């Protein structure tokens, strides 16, 4: 009779709850096999771009990494590879994933899909092969270039070793290879026997460096902008080959001089006595008048003049025409010289430069070399007898020896105690002696081979005032120097002054002095032009002719004899070149008489 217990309620809500959960999960379970879109978007390593095997998550940036890759990066850098923020291993959280194997991709489930995969792989292989071929070609080119460099280096090393071995046989002549830029006083005997001591104390650091370079490598050539420890430019020096060339030239010219006779075509004294102005040519500018230097190309009878107007003018005397005007200098031209062998003209200027000009067939000249080795005005240019070298003297108290063909300065010579600049210079006709004059009236004689000073005239035996000009006689014995106190004549055999010509008053300087090529006459220029007959040491040098200064300035600056002293070219402080000689009719009669005599 007891009432039965009421039936338990049906768990409908609970079943509904589980049913709903299963329904929500069904879409994931129903995901087709091989569809990895969701996994690929989420499970990608930020470093490798691949699905990681042991993924870890950065709590700082939320990026996913392969554990082994991010661990190595943190050990090396201590930062996140993407955000570059500080990152430690403690900031990484392991991501737990399902261990179910990765299903096969959809493309591999059909033949067309496989063909597409194979095509993609083939394309990638071809692109990779093309890139490898390009890299191989580049590597071959680099290897070829490296082999060429190696071969060239081996050749250079072999050549240097050969030169080093050859130089060891020249140690006895090492002192000749030292470019002495600060030569001190040396006894005459020390140079005449051709030997000088090899002492470190006689050289500056720069010269000592060059000495070692020349001993080890005779072919060594210092660059123009190469400087030594003392800050001075390094010069290659006058090497033994050049010294032998200078010595040979000296021997040949000395032998020829002993046999040389006065040419019968030389103008006689009575002809010089009748010289008068035969022509005048306005070659330079009138606003900057003044001709400072003259030289003559004897074989072509071309006269070159250098003026205050910064121009050099080449004048053809027979035709009376100007061949060309050289205008590259920026200041007055102080000295110029012809080099007839190669049809060159060398000019020195107050702009501190020296220029070598090359003559052309049409009579024009072009600048071939420009030298900027001096630090002050270039006052003198003189050409060696071989016509392969020349020297310049400057107010910077140095003189330079140049190779004409290359325009390179082989050596620059000065004295440590030298304060007065050079104002004149001239080579001896044999080429082994160079004379220089200074602004203080000092005359210095140099041995070109060793660049050592072998004689010095100063004080009572020297000049008063600036040495304006100097000229060696072709007989090889006499040197004439000009200054405020006149012209001094020196006997080079005894190194003494044997005569002084004082044609002008004490306030009138002698501006120029010049021997003719035969050594028979000497011309002196100051307030006028005076021509003397050359005699010997004991005989008086007689005045032959006085030519007036027709410029009206009272200052003749330069004088030059023509071939066989047939005329005298004169430059003054006006803009005209004047030529003195025999008048036309007398000149023709003189030529006829010479022909009859021959």
TrEMBL record:
Subcellular location per the Swiss-Prot or TrEMBL entry: Nucleus
Domain U-box: 38-112
Residue windows of the WD repeats: 326-358, 371-412, 415-456, 460-500
Species assigned in the record: Aegilops tauschii subsp. strangulata (Goatgrass)
CDD domains: RING-Ubox_PRP19, WD40
InterPro entries (alphabetical): Prp19, Prp19_cc, RING-Ubox_PRP19, Ubox_domain, WD40/YVTN_repeat-like_dom_sf, WD40_repeat_dom_sf, WD40_rpt, Znf_RING/FYVE/PHD
Name under which the protein is recorded: Pre-mRNA-processing factor 19
Pfam families: Prp19, U-box, WD40_Prp19
Enzyme Commission numbers on file: 2.3.2.27
The family this protein is said to belong to: Belongs to the WD repeat PRP19 family.
SUPFAM superfamilies in UniProt: RING/U-box, WD40 repeat-like
SMART domains for the chain: Ubox (SM00504), WD40 (SM00320)
Task performed by this protein: Ubiquitin-protein ligase which is mainly involved pre-mRNA splicing and DNA repair. Required for pre-mRNA splicing as component of the spliceosome.
GO molecular function, one term: ubiquitin protein ligase activity
């Amino acid at each position: 009779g007891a009432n039965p217990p009421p039936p338990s309620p049906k768990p409908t809500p609970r079943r509904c709850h589980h049913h709903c959960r299963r329904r929500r999960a069904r879409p994931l379970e129903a995901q087709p096999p091989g569809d990895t879109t969701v996994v690929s978007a989420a499970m990608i390593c930020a470093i490798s771009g691949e699905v990681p095997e042991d993924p870890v998550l950065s709590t700082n940036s939320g990026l996913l990494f392969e554990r082994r890759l991010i661990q190595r990066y943190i050990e090396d850098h201590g930062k996140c590879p993407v955000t570059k923020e500080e990152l430690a291993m403690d900031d990484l959280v392991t991501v737990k994933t399902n261990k179910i194997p990765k299903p096969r991709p959809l493309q591999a489930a059909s033949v067309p899909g496989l063909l597409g995969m194979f095509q993609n792989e083939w394309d990638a292989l071809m692109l990779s092969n093309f890139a490898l071929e390009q890299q191989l070609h580049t590597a071959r080119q680099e290897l070829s270039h490296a082999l060429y460099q190696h071969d060239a280096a081996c050749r250079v090393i072999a050549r240097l070793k050969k030169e080093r071995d050859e130089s060891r046989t020249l140690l006895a002549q090492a002192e000749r290879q030292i470019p002495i830029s600060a030569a001190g006083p040396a006894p005459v005997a020390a140079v005449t026997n051709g030997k000088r001591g090899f002492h470190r104390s006689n050289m500056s650091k720069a010269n000592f460096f060059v000495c070692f370079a020349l001993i080890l490598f005779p072919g060594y050539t210092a660059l123009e902008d190469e400087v030594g420890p003392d800050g001075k430019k390094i010069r290659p020096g006058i090497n033994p080959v050049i010294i032998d060339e200078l010595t040979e030239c000296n021997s040949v010219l000395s032998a020829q001089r002993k046999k040389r006779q006065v040419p019968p075509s030389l103008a006689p004294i009575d002809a010089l006595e009748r010289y008068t102005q035969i022509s005048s040519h306005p070659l330079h500018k009138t606003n900057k008048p003044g001709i400072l230097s003259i030289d003559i190309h004897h074989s072509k009878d071309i006269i070159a003049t250098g003026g205050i107007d910064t121009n050099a003018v080449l004048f053809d005397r027979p035709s009376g025409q100007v061949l060309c005007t050289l205008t590259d200098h920026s200041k007055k031209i102080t000295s110029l010289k012809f080099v007839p062998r190669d049809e060159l003209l060398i000019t020195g200027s107050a702009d501190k430069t020296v220029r070598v000009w090359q003559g052309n067939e049409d009579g024009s000249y072009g600048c071939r070399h420009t030298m900027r080795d001096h630090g002050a005005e270039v006052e003198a240019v003189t050409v060696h007898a071989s016509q392969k070298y020349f020297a310049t003297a400057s107010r910077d108290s140095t003189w330079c020896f140049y190779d004409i063909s290359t325009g390179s300065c082989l050596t620059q010579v000065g004295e440590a105690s030298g304060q007065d600049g050079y104002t004149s210079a001239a080579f001896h006709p044999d080429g082994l002696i160079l004379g220089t004059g200074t602004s203080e009236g000092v005359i210095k004689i140099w041995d070109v081979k060793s660049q050592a000073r072998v004689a010095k005239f100063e004080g009572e035996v020297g000049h008063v005032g600036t040495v304006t000009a100097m000229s060696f006689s072709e007989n090889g014995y006499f040197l004439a120097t000009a200054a405020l106190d006149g012209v001094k004549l020196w006997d080079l055999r005894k190194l003494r002054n044997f005569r002084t010509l004082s044609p002008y008053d004490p306030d009138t300087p002698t501006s120029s002095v010049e021997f003719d090529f035969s050594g028979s006459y000497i011309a002196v220029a100051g307030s006028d032009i005076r021509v003397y007959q050359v005699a010997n040491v004991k005989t008086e040098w007689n005045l032959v002719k006085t030519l007036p200064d027709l410029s009206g300035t009272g200052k003749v600056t330069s004088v030059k004899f023509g071939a066989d002293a047939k005329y005298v070219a004169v430059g003054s402080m006006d803009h005209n070149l004047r030529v003195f000689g025999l008048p036309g009719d007398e000149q023709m009669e003189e030529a006829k008489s010479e022909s009859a005599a021959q």
